[in-house]
Amino acid sequence: MKFATFLFHGREAVGVISPDEQQIYPLTGVPDMIGLISAYRGESFDALSKDLPLPLTEVKLLAPIPHPRHDLICVGMNYLEHALESARFKRIEFKKSPNPLYFSKRVGRCPATGEDIPAHTDLTQELDYEAELAVVIGKRCDRVSPQDVWDYVFGYTILNDVSARDLQRGHGGQYYFGKSLDGFAPMGPWIVTADEFGPNPHLAVRSRVNGELRQNGNTREFLYDIPFLVSQLSSGFVLEPGDIIATGTPSGVGMGFQPPKFLSPGDVVECEIEGIGKLVNTIR
To answer: pTM of the entire structure?
Structure first.
């Protein structure tokens, strides 16, 4: 199923998307998406307590979790070809580590599909995009074994890990500031429950800028898969319902081209993941 957060007549609510993606059914007794995730026990579409449907064209979709409780957990260099293009841009040699590169991304509010991404031209001239599969945790994870991880995954959504490459370089190569400017975590259009895919889904991950295909990868290329990531993270700290893990991006980001193809105001960025949908935003 697909669950979304939306606005209707100024009121924020959570709903389930109809199978044809033409309507949304508001859910009753659900305070927000994290409340839904915490209470969800795999109910069927018919078993959900819901109001009469609304045409999807008459509501405004928000990011499925507009205000995450915690910083996003991000995985760097999780696709080999992206790791190689990043190393070329930095003029260094890539060597695979036995452990992933983790970093966090501060988020005040996640923009939804259809909303603008601030260009922050006063701070960066090297604005970049990264289409990523985001894992949404469904239950409290504390020292979960790799074989049990799928019992703790609620579902998946799309994240654009917007990045200011010059800020990354200018701050000693650390990622936090250059990836955490306001509006740098567009997410959506909804969360698709994990049961729609099965364990270790192999999904096409693509991005386009102004219609030009830039990224065209597949999650089968992960260097560190979802069971490894969730198990390792939960070995050191507790993951809670609604926590989000961004699993990395394929090659084809702006810095990977010669010369680089960074974003400018007016550019339209489309991130698409097979079985989930599209996240579309304009740089302003």
So the answer is: 0.96
Burial of 275 (0-12, 13-18, 19+ CB in 10 A): exposed
Put the strands of the sheet holding 212-218 in their side by side order.
Answer: 116-117, 277-283, 268-273, 204-209, 212-218
The yes-or-no verdict on residue 182 having pLDDT over 90 is yes
Rounded mean pLDDT of 108-123?
98
DSSP collapsed to 3 states, the chain? CEEEEEEECCEEEEEEECCCCCEEEEECCCCCHHHHHHHCCCCCCCCCCECCCEEHHHCEEECCCCCCCCCEEEEECCEHHHHHHHHHHHCCCCCCCCCCEEEEECCCCCCCCCCEECCCCCCCCCEECCEEEEEEECCCECCCCHHHHHHCEEEEEEEECCEEHHHHHHCCCCCCCCCCCCCCCCEEEEEEEHHHCCCCCCCEEEEEECCEEEEEEEHHHECCCHHHHHHHHHCCCCECCCCEEECCCCCCCHHHCCCCCCECCCCEEEEEECCCEEEEEEEC
Q: Which domains does the chain have, with CATH numbers?
A: 2-62 (3.10.330), 72-283 (3.90.850.10)
Tokens at 265, concatenated? 């105001």
**8 A C-beta contact, residue 174 and residue 163:** no
Q: What would the two tokens of residue 138 be? A: 């469904």
| 205/225 Cα distance (integer angstroms) | 15
